[in-house]
Write a structure and sequence with these properties.
2 strands; mainly alpha; two-stranded parallel ribbon
């Protein structure tokens, strides 16, 4: 499971579909609808949020919006409405930089043409659920 801190616009088609599925799984875990993945490190920052379900649903909304920009047909009915603003989750510069290197390596192996789109990007945007703060790679990240 990988719930990217990076904006989903950087993901190739395969990565965006995988993110949608994995974030839906995270939604099911946080809602108590499944027993698997309850202790997955990627869920820690969502589980620690004061309203974990609202946070994961806000996360999914942006993934859905990216899919719609690309003309995909992800099922919006899987998401309840998010009422009002959701408290942002802190994300460190170290985490952003780690994920950017990780994603670029994945794209280089899987989708060289998609990877090439991002050659001029030094500081990628974050998913709008996250606010950037100085710091190292997150403790929950598996290096």
């Amino acid at each position: 499971m990988r719930l990217w801190t990076l904006h989903p616009c950087y993901l190739d088609p395969q990565g965006l579909v995988a993110l949608w599925r994995e974030a839906l799984l995270a939604q099911a875990v946080l809602a108590g609808r499944t027993q698997g993945y309850r202790h997955h490190p990627q869920l820690q920052r969502f589980a620690a949020h004061p309203d974990a379900l609202a946070a994961v649903n806000a996360y999914l909304r942006e993934v859905l919006a990216e899919s719609q920009r690309r003309g995909y047909r992800f099922d919006a009915a899987k998401l309840p409405l998010v009422h009002g603003p959701v408290l942002l989750i802190a994300a460190s510069t170290g985490q952003r930089d780690h994920e950017w290197r990780h994603l670029r390596a994945k794209l280089a192996a899987r989708s060289a043409s998609w990877n090439g789109r991002w050659d001029a990007v030094d500081l990628p945007r974050l998913h709008p659920l996250f606010r950037l703060e100085p710091g190292a790679v997150a403790d929950w990240e598996r290096l």
